[in-house]
Amino acid sequence: YEMSGLQAARVMGDDFVTLESIGSDCVVTHRTHSDDAWATTMAGVSCDDAQMATDAERNLAFVANGDLWAIDLITGESRMIVEGAGDMVEYDPNSGAIITATHGDTPVRAWNVHGSNIWNVYADGAVYQLHNLAEMGAMVAHTDGEFVAFDGRTGEVWGAGVAWDNIQFFDISGDGTHL
Question: Per-residue pLDDT tens for 108-133?
Fold first, then answer.
């Protein structure tokens, strides 16, 4: 596939979901391996530097572009659920929490699909990346000089470890055994 303006892509079951910036619009597309596709255009909503997470059980995509949006991948309905939530997003399937943060800031927050705040924690340093450990029910944040693991349900810090200097991106397996 060639997709101009691609911001993010997520595997969701046997399908995948893409987030594309097309002109001044943000487009979320649910694609099947048989080339069927259902697109939702969020007119006038910027998704430059936005991130996306998906909830395969409820067929939802979450887009963080400063605000937090929920997109129903079946009906195509999109709605802002939290204004000012951040520009990073992950989804914890164990708790149903949508975890957000703002690149370079310290708060990490959890929301439900209705936009109610579940918990807030403050990292010891600026947050640069979020990653979920779906099988473990946790989130990992890359902050200034360390990785911090949070419980997806409560925000309790499970532990922290030193991160090497100048790391730009990391990936971690869902069971937390490989970084």
Answer: 999 999 999 999 998 888 888 887 77
